Amino acid sequence: MIHAAFIVLKMAPLLNDFEGENEMKPNLIEPWSAQTSRPKVKAHTMTARAVLLFSVLTCLSCSALAESPASESTRSLAPVKTHQHHVAKEHFGEGDRDVEFHFSTFGDSRTDRKIKSITAQDKLFLTATAPLARMIKELNAKKSQALFFNGDMIMGYDADSTQVQREYAYWRGMMATLMESGTYVVPVPGNHEVQMPTKGSDGQVVKYAQTQLENIWRENMSDLILDEARWNHIVKTPFSAFDIHNTPLTSEDHLQTDQTQLYYSFDVGHLHIAVINTDPVGADASVAVNWLKRDFEAAKERGANAIVAFGHKMPFVYIPDGSTKASEDSLDNTSGQRDAFWSVMESYGATYFCGHEHVFHADQPTKAAGGQSWQVIVGSGGSPFGIKKGESKNPQDRMYAWADVKVHKSGALGVKIFGFDENMGPTQELSHWRIEPSNRLWSQVKSSAH
Predict the structure, then answer these.
(1) What are the backbone dihedrals phi and psi of residue 115, each rounded to the nearest 5 degrees, phi first?
(2) Do 356 and 376 contact (CB within 8 A), yes or no?
(3) Does one domain contain both 90 and 42?
(4) How far is CA 172 from CA 127, 149, 224, in A?
(5) Which of 10, 69, 355, 362 could join 376 via S-S bond, C-beta 3.0 to 4.6 A?
(6) Together in a domain, 20 and 148
(7) Full domain range(s) for residue 355
């Protein structure tokens, strides 16, 4: 390094000799047009200066490498056995080179005026701006190709349509950041979008889905479901098998309204994606099971090796240790409808990502009975935590969190959960695991038949 410094000192006068009265010196404050009006330095002068500067930089680099036992770039070439390296290998299995699609998912960013510490901005637009903005930034950094937002992006529950439209507009404005930086946003309807609290004859308030709210949903989300040109521009991986008319029949599953753009599905590579409305008019807290089965079967016939579904309400509630009740209601099972839905999920080896409960929790709900499908609740996008302080010993139950999922060509899903605490502390990896390809079940059935 001493030798390099000596060279610089020796060459400094030479460099100065090339500075003439007519040399152009760009001014970072002045506009470029003003700078270009000045006389230009001669070409041979610029070339000579460039050669001298290159020589100086080369000497500096060589000197640094010679005198340093190992530069930062040299050290980074050697494999480092850290916990992070181990987790990545275990998490993604085949390696990132085999990733066919990379998406993130969470839901529930609406907030509530009842919160004491709510800002004036959030009180007007009813969005938990701070945690949502933080998560958008994190998703940008991880370069997710798509975000599946699992409902409750607005507070809703308001007869004032102007307020409802204002909430949609604010949320869309925040999502525009993702759309313009490489992440396509796929919306999933939640109860706060399609339901309205209604007082019954007995005085009890019950939430029912309403036709006009389904229409307002379409007014605000139809351009996202799905814009092929924008998808291809943003995601770079084309989708297929999308048919806007592929929706449940109103003659089935107690449905009373057209579910266009509330139910829809498509493929990305060998991954099949289904979006469901868990609160359709006439059948609140339910899933159109007959449509879902037909949709999954068609995907199977097309050669899908992984199937995922996105909805708002979960079939199975999460009750933390030490608590006796869940913070939210689940899909209705009075007629066995919930179990019928989960039976379809199990039959096709599908994974279900949802929200509604303002928490992260993942499990295989029917594992004790041989079930293999995963339910992943990520309703932790900024809404008030459903689990109050002291109700759970698990600190993750009061963290803002999202799922980061990499889909491998084999059909395996590498799932990581990231989050940060209510004080907006550092982002942590909360969990990671691998979900086997959906078609593993189909191959097992074929082998047993033979």
Answers:
(1) -65, 130
(2) no
(3) no
(4) 11, 12, 10
(5) 362
(6) no
(7) 83-449
